[in-house]
Specification:
The complex is a heterodimer of chains A (about 475) and B (about 250). Chain A has about 475 residues and is an alpha/beta fold. In chain A, about 25% of the residues lie in helices and about 35% in strands. Chain A is built from 12 helices and 23 strands. Chain B has one domain: Rossmann fold. In chain B, the strands form 3 sheets. Chain B has a 6-stranded mixed β-sheet, sandwiched between helices. A 4-stranded antiparallel β-sheet of chain B has the order 2-1-4-5, with helices on one face. A two-stranded antiparallel ribbon of chain B has the order 7-8. The chains are: A alpha/beta (about 475), B alpha/beta (about 250).
Chain lengths: ~475, ~250
Amino acid sequence: MESNKRKKNAPELEEFIDKKYQYGFVTDIESETLPPGLDENVIRLISEKKNEPEFLLEWRLKAFKFWQKLKPPMWGHLKIDDINYQAISYFSKPKQENAPQSLEDVDPKLLDTYEKLGIPLHERAALAGVAVDAVFDSVSVTTTFKEKLAEAGVIFCPFSEAVRQYPDLIKKYLGKVVPYRDNFYAALNAAVFTDGSFVYIPKGVRCPMELSTYFRINEAKTGQFERTLIIADEGSYVSYLEGCTAPMRDENQLHAAVVELIAHDDAEIKYSTVQNWYPGDESGQGGIYNFVTKRGDCRGHNSKISWTQIETGSAITWKYPSCILRGDKSVGEFYSIALTNNFQQADTGTKMIHIGKNTKSKVISKGISAGHSQNSYRGLVAVSKNAEASRNYTNCDSLLIGADCGAHTFPSMEIHNSSTILEHEASASKVSDEQLFYCKQRGINEEDAVALIVSGFCKEVLNELPMEFAVEARALLAVNLEGAVG
Amino acid sequence: MSKSIEILSIENLGVSIANKTIINGLNLKVNSQEIHAIMGPNGSGKSTFAKTLAGHPECLISNGEITYLGTNINELEIDERANKGIFLGFQYPIEIPGLSNTIFLKTALNAQRKAQNKNAITAAEFLKELQDNARLMGIDQSFLHRGVNENFSGGEKKRNEILQMLMLKPKLSILDETDSGLDIDAMKTVANGVNHMRKNDSSIILITHYERLLKYIKPDFVHVLSQGRIVESGDSTLASKLEEKGYEWLLKK
């Protein structure tokens, strides 16, 4: 008789696993959704609905023509089912006669949704002093703290509003960091993007609060294509955070966003992402396809762009937030945690392109794979001929939980200057049975033990997040690891 | 001394690891506030016995009963045993890189308090206790913010085990070769921690190879383990006898 056979999940654990993706609700709200399909007319319609100036429509149409000639990139370590781009609806908007002027005009059901997501839309509830722009399906719903920001001269508004109010800024900067010719998804986004956030920090201004955007896909069979543009003028500073969630649905939904950052002389942009799109269920059914192009241009002397990403959601993630270090002495940073569980796939990393002299970049990547998931780091460090005395430090660690998952790294380097200094460190480890035994012997249950070990593994990256989001990120890692062991 | 109650009772225990019998017919009773030293040659089953009490999944109980505070715990999960007050001081404490000692200990302590229907400890209370106990164990403040056992020396790891024991206040502690690899000063510090625990109404099973630790911690009972069972029991004088004569005379019994 072998009497101390381990019990599997305790009942409370089962319950916990059942409510795993807590953002999977659908808001029952009347919406105006275009029928599925994509052609020039759809693009004209989007542009018309948004009252866009002619230059933007022309740009969209050029992007669309270009996109039609492209094929999706297949070089990622990803298995992607064919996507029928004619089966997706490219515009969905909560029905409302007139655009909301203030929070009082916003449909209470929408406010409820954001309440459930834990986003403090009401300014009085925004204890942390975070200005929030919320994008629901295709449309930006509201931006909080507008007045306080305006006092400082900061522009933070929905992209579609910026197009109408600041067309010169849009014309000057749109598509300059990520041109529509960049890749398949960037071209698609340029053609059909519907909203997003726009930020401009004037010369010498330190943005007085964290800026934040929450993206939410609600409608079925829609895609979300938002575009974010952040410009930090000379000597300015801004910290920006985006969060994303979606309902649980059986079919895959497409999210193809573009983010462009521009930092002028002595400016600094800190961009943090907590990505928690619906990852699909335990068998790999459903989930968001997250194909995103993010790039920052350190255009100015002594400028700095820092990307921090916590990627826990999505069925498939294809994403490489990058820095072009054009200005002399500019600095690029990339801090990443990518966690995959069940049948999730992630192919993510960064590109650091050194062009200016004395440029520095730092890459810290932490990949955690559990279940049957596949997690890849893909990175490029390129140093051009004139980038004298540039440095890069890359640290790339993988942590495996269980025996059925995979971790892969694809680092590459193109160095054309002999004064470059490069350091590269990589490691792969497992959450060991002995570590779990040790934690459990101290009274910590298995789920919490795994979360603790993972948070220790991710410490360097979690430390980069603004305080209030670091707590959220830890909680998110724990939730997404449920059922990873045992 | 308060009236002693039975903490642990083991009857005719049999344990195997990977189909190999390691413990065979072991009997032991431990009452409150008692210190039992378990000695024995290499391979006699000392560490397996310790791991079995903690519920390690590779130690399969094939026979007998472990009764702790009046309940059979053969089937209990590792963390459930811990939450009932069973503590194992590891022979080779495990490293958890990046996870600070403080967060680890606070999580463990609050998990145990929750299981015992107690409120979570306040940050102020916790820090005060942690600082007091760290001082007792000669552990520098800076250690508390480093990763759990990460790049600790052997002696630091062992002192950290005792610190955890002092913080968690178990009813029964099994210390597996806590003295191995310690210099004389570290051994005194560790002994000091154990004696402090003894005053707090705790029972202790000390697993050790050598008599030298027992100069600083006076056990109530000394048992000799051989081939998976206790072959001789006595008071603390038995340890000196072993030091003098070795194990041979017992193994022939």
